[in-house]
Specification:
It comes from Novosphingobium album (ex Hu et al. 2023). By secondary structure, the protein is mostly helical. It has a single domain, classed as Arc Repressor Mutant, subunit A. 63% of the residues lie in helices and 11% in strands. The chain is built from six helices and three strands. The chain has a three-stranded antiparallel sheet with strand order 1-3-2.
Length: 148
């Protein structure tokens, strides 16, 4: 009998089914593969961000511009480093004037990619963070660069 499994059932039964096929495939082995892939994605994000920041060494500084992308990468890396990113910091990371950075941050918020939250210690400051949608989309894109 050839029965299709719902995705959730397949996901939970997959380690058991793989172990039946090949006993060397353990849950720990599968967890390590997932962990290594996540680390690789984070390394790729950091490398792309660093290369983008160094473009000004080789080309005229204002030749390229993609502030939204730079802000998303900066927030993703900051999340990994467990750092809060202020609006001002995000503008600096994007390499654009504050007014341009604010415009792009507003667009990212309106499109559901970034959340803004106030600093509880200082009402004058706000922090930014990626939404789950942005994080998932970025990881899906960066996984395309993975060597696996």
């Amino acid at each position: 009998m050839n029965r299709k499994m719902p995705a959730e059932e397949l996901h939970t039964d997959l380690p058991k089914k793989l172990a039946e096929i090949d006993p060397s495939i353990t849950t720990e082995y599968l967890e390590n593969i997932t962990l290594n892939k996540e680390r690789n994605i984070k390394k790729i994000a950091r490398k792309i961000y660093n290369i983008r920041q160094k473009r000004g060494i080789f080309f005229r500084k204002n030749l390229f511009g993609d502030p939204a992308w730079d802000i998303i990468l900066d927030l993703y890396i900051a999340e990994e480093d467990e750092k809060e990113i202020s609006i001002t910091s995000a503008c600096v990371a994007a390499g654009v004037p504050t007014s341009t950075g604010l415009r792009w941050i507003t667009i990212l918020i309106q499109n559901g990619y970034v959340d803004r939250h106030d600093d509880p210690a200082d009402a004058r400051r706000s922090y930014l963070r990626l939404t789950a949608t942005a994080r998932d989309s970025l990881e899906a894109l960066l996984s395309q660069f993975s060597e696996d």
